Structure prediction request, 767 residues.
Amino acid sequence: MPTKVIMPQMGESVVEGTVGQWLKREGDPVSEYEPIVEVETDKVTSEVTASTSGTLLKIYVGEGLTVPTGTVLALIGQPDEAVPDVVEAEAVVAFGHAAPEATTSPPEAPPAPEARPAARSHVTPVVARMAAQHAIDVSRIQGTGHGGRVTKRDLLAYLERSSAAEQPTPELPPWEQPGSGELFKIPTEAPAPTPPPDHAHKAPPAPGAPGDLIPHSPMRRRIAEHMVRSKLHTAPHVTTVFEADMGAVVAHRAAHKDDFARRGTNLTFTAYFVAATAQALRRHPAVNSEWREDGLLLKPEVNIGMAVALDEGLIVPVIRRADELSLAGIARQANDLAARARAGKLSPDDVQGGTFTLTNHGVSGSLFATPIINQPQTGILGVGAIKKRVVVLEDQGDALAVRPMVYLSFTFDHRTLDGAAADWFVAEIVRLLEGWSLE
Amino acid sequence: MPELTLIEAVRQAMDEELARDKTVFITGEDVGPRGGVFRATVGLYDKYGPHRVIDSPLAELSIIAVGIGAALVGMRPICEIQFADYIFPAFNQIVNEAALVYYRTNGDWHVPLVIRAPYGGGIGGGLYHSQSVEAYFAHAPGLKVVIPSTPYDAKGLLKSAVRDPNPVLFFEPKKGYRLIRGEVPAEEYTVPIGPAQVTRQGRDVTVYAYGMMHYYAQQAAQTVAEQDGIEAEVVDLRTLVPLDKETVIASFKKTGKALVVYEDNKFLGYGAEIAAILSDEAFEYMDGPIRRLAGLDVPGVPFAHTMQDFFMPSPEKIAGAIRELAEY
Prediction:
């Protein structure tokens, strides 16, 4: 007897759902708890997981169709099992709202509680908060509340049982908690502008075994969606590459690094790039802008997003009004944001409102790149690795010198900027970096 | 420690305050030789004389107005309104005069006035002898509103009210006057106006109540503990204004579920404010709907006993609501 995959109830008042992407095809093997289809309501997108292991025998509801909760979406069973024929299956699809009887039998209670997405969407605030705090997938917990709802007590009992309880997180006020979980996820305003760089000093997380299909994390999906939208559907990308002599900056940093450290701030090169970019943006407002169909919106603030690599992807916390901050102010904020990003402790405010993005791909050794624009911004500056190179000093009689050099790759939206305007902007950054006063 | 009824504790508080402070006096309908319609002042006329325990005309406006005037010149009046239902002729005096003086004069003048009034249903009093009026006054800044539920608190809080420099409305659950008994120490003590009290510890649901409903909530909590193994925490608010938000919120953070019980009409009753505060200030701790169990939204507590029972929250109804919340 095949097991039915049904449209779950995604919330108390939700009576229908839309089938998003099928993550499995007919005939694919599925294992229990494995996501097999995405389901969307006007509020959330969620994955329906297999309530049993077996083979996905038949898909009845195609992508993009909206059906009432309880509708049979697919059947899981043994490869040789008989399934209702095509005609009956088409009835469901054709009518959209056809009762599940058309395929097999009347709608049943939601699938096994362990795999029920409904439980995830119907969580109370305290459960959502605690689940986020302890990084628990609530749908894995057997609920004892009304309709199998996971209660605070269920969660506490689960914590006691599970190994998660070995290292309980102290109760933090909500504003100090990482923004994660269905209810409190960070808005998708600023996903990754570049493919996730590997840390030079840190190997990427181990992939699965060859042949495995690794399910996409929500962050991965958001990054993917954003990349495609930005590069393929929104902005014609052009990248221009400049090089800058970092001698002045290196000298300044060497002179002030210890002083900053005594005051608790790690003075990184990133701070100089942010500072120079912010000043250049102020002088080139067209770069600090957003393309709209009815005109070019010049942003009133210079808020620089700083791409930070995480194990599971990227996040872009924002340094607000960077043009009004001192180098120390920028360094402090950059340190803080990067640390909190890696600790998963950014608040939604931290990642919103960026008007320009800086990606420091040089940390993984890359020299130059062609970053993808973080929509709806106009440009993104990629900073390569600072390397000592032999350069010809033409203004000093073609002398040869060893200088710390860096490539700056500026990708811009060609709808907004032409090559010359873009180059003036990057040239400004180069001028600021090369002319950095030792004071 | 002697055991007193709630009304005996009220009387004892007034007796001791009359003895302690010569500026304290009592006025109200039949408070003198008759000793009050509920006998709250019985014996005090004989003990302190007609100048300190003063029968008033049948005019609530003037009882309160006299109280305010006397308070402004340094007296500490205890004005008795025979039933809270009768307080409305004095409403203007209370919310527009007594409540505003301290604020209006930038602290130069104050009205150390206590208004005592028996409130609430359950005694077959019908429409005009059963009302709960606390929400009207709790809404007006400048007034303190106190509702005790035990003899100990009644005595200690009433003494604090008499000594308070500003107007205090002291509503007494009349059904509990002789029903509720408790130990009251013979020696001098007061209970401060302000703090609520967790009167029963539990982890499943918090029941917020005051006055008679607190008495019922205790019974209900006991019932669900014995019959269902549900551990309900009970908070006796005691002082409605100023509200002890700290205690209220702390208990909610512990249980995540709140049942607010009051016998006033449900719509815009005092408990609505508790519910609003919890959802506003402790949202992340919520593990179920914040529920109110209150009187029906009909004009008055019915006279017929069957109808009165239907109207009023009871220990059984409270227990039922606790069970529902615990299961949520």
